[in-house]
Specification:
Na+/H+ antiporter like fold, globular
């Protein structure tokens, strides 16, 4: 393929992705599904013209996945506002993400162990990627939800990504360690070091970049974040926490910069950086997400759907997702509707990325990778149906919330009535004053008229 044909193909992919976004808003079908189908179509064209796919496509997929993950988490972090009002959503989403990850991971590990007769540790290594909710699919798909549901899903999917990645790398780095205490100390130490380093780096970056002069510093900021992420991975730190903490700190400087250090921050400059960063991250995440899922679509082989055993195992795994999610959401939202959140638990970018990151000594000879494809497609289709069916319904309120809402509406209506009544009375008074003035002027004119007339002879 010559350079011009490649440019034409890449441009068409971007254009199609924008069209898919428009279709997604109208139909509630996630654009990710359409991008994967576009990739499948591209693969058919490549096969027809006998273009070969070599190992380069898998390395490209991994790089796109890493950059896309950074952009997506940064985009979500700079949209999240921390306050006392948000605290219930934050802690509930964190606990739901953590418990869901653990329940799904160990349940799926048991299924893989029993079906494929695989080693328990290797089964767990393969189960973790399948247990992580994809923020790359969730975040662009929940824009049409009510604000509280939207924020909950963004927090939960982001926490699921971070906790899942930490769990995965903790496991593969401590395989073979017989001393449980060593593993516990390693995990706690990693978490503490990651959080301390993330906070220190985030403060330094905010203070540094608000003082940089120039028009092209945003991509430098993104390059620094990607560099820090890669270095953190090499040092076996949970680098995604660095991205999350930086985004939260940048969007909540009034919370993190207090007391004497509050004077270190130029609010006007930070506001400008945030505005520009919103645009850059949104556009960059869009482009990277587009090519990731299109390239992923070119690796799909739909012949896996003809293997009934693999389809059956995949659907059992999907059933575990929704059963555990139903129980957890019901436990935390007893008096509220859990729709359509119940159906929003797709697998995607992180699942594929971690699957390609499994070390050679932990790979399975019996596990069928087509299970990854089927779970991604099944969860995305179910999420699509849930969004179409339930995203337009009003959330159910607890009785005390209904009463409070009614009182608030009554107060608003009473204020509106009193306003219009006062307006009417004011207008009536003005009209009466005008009539009095008109009568006085008419009377004065009547008194002056005889003086102007000449006396009759």
């Amino acid at each position: 393929m010559n350079a011009y044909n490649l440019i034409i193909a890449l441009s068409c992919v971007i254009i199609f992705s924008h069209i898919f976004n428009f279709v997604s808003k109208r139909t509630k079908v996630p654009s990710v599904i359409l991008l994967i189908l576009l990739g499948v179509g591209i693969k058919l064209v490549m096969d027809f013209y006998e273009y070969s796919q070599d190992a380069l496509i898998f390395s490209t997929l991994e790089v796109l996945g890493i950059v896309g993950l950074i952009m997506i988490v940064l985009e979500a972090a700079i949209d999240l506002e921390l306050s006392k009002d948000k605290w219930p959503i934050i802690w509930k989403s964190f606990v739901v993400a953590l418990l869901s990850l653990m329940v799904c991971a160990f349940s799926i590990s048991f299924i893989i162990n029993q079906v494929f007769q695989e080693d328990p540790i290797i089964s767990l290594v393969y189960a973790i990627p399948l247990s992580i909710m994809s923020s790359a699919i969730v975040i662009p798909s929940v824009n049409g939800l009510f604000e509280d549901k939207k924020e909950f899903m963004i927090y939960e999917s982001t926490f699921s990504d971070i906790l899942g990645i930490m769990f995965f790398y903790f496991l593969i780095e401590n395989v073979g360690t017989e001393n449980t205490g060593t593993v516990v100390y390693s995990i706690i130490g990693n978490i503490v070091i990651t959080i301390v380093v993330s906070i220190a780096i985030s403060y330094a970056l905010v203070l540094l970049f608000q003082r940089l002069v120039g028009d092209v510093k945003l991509f430098m900021l993104i390059a620094v974040l990607i560099l820090l992420y890669a270095i953190g991975k090499q040092l076996h730190l949970s680098s995604l926490v660095i991205i999350l903490v930086f985004g939260l700190l940048l969007n909540n400087t009034n919370l993190f910069f207090f007391g004497k250090i509050k004077s270190w921050v130029d609010s006007k400059m930070i506001s400008g950086i945030l505005k520009d960063l919103h645009l850059v991250t949104r556009e960059s995440a869009f482009v990277v997400r587009t090519f990731f899922f299109v390239v992923f679509g070119t690796t799909i082989d739909f012949r896996a759907l003809l293997n009934l055993e693999i389809v059956g195992v995949s659907l059992i795994i999907v059933a575990v997702f929704y059963l555990s999610r139903f129980l957890l959401l019901k436990a935390f939202f007893i008096k509220k509707s859990i729709l359509p959140e119940l159906f929003i638990t797709p697998r995607g970018l992180i699942t594929v990325l971690l699957f390609f990151s499994i070390p050679a000594h932990l790979t399975s000879d019996t596990f069928n990778s087509d299970i990854i494809l089927i779970t991604i497609l099944a969860t995305s289709i179910i999420m699509t149906w849930g969004l179409i069916r339930f995203s337009g319904t009003e959330p159910e309120l607890a009785p005390e919330e209904v009463i409070a809402d009614a009182l608030e509406k009554d107060n608003q209506s009473s204020k509106e009535v009193s306003y219009f009544v006062s307006r009417m009375s004011d207008e009536a008074e003005e009209a009466a004053d005008k009539e009095v003035l008109a009568e006085e002027e008419k009377h004065e004119e009547g008194d002056e008229e005889p003086e102007d007339q000449e006396p009759k002879s």
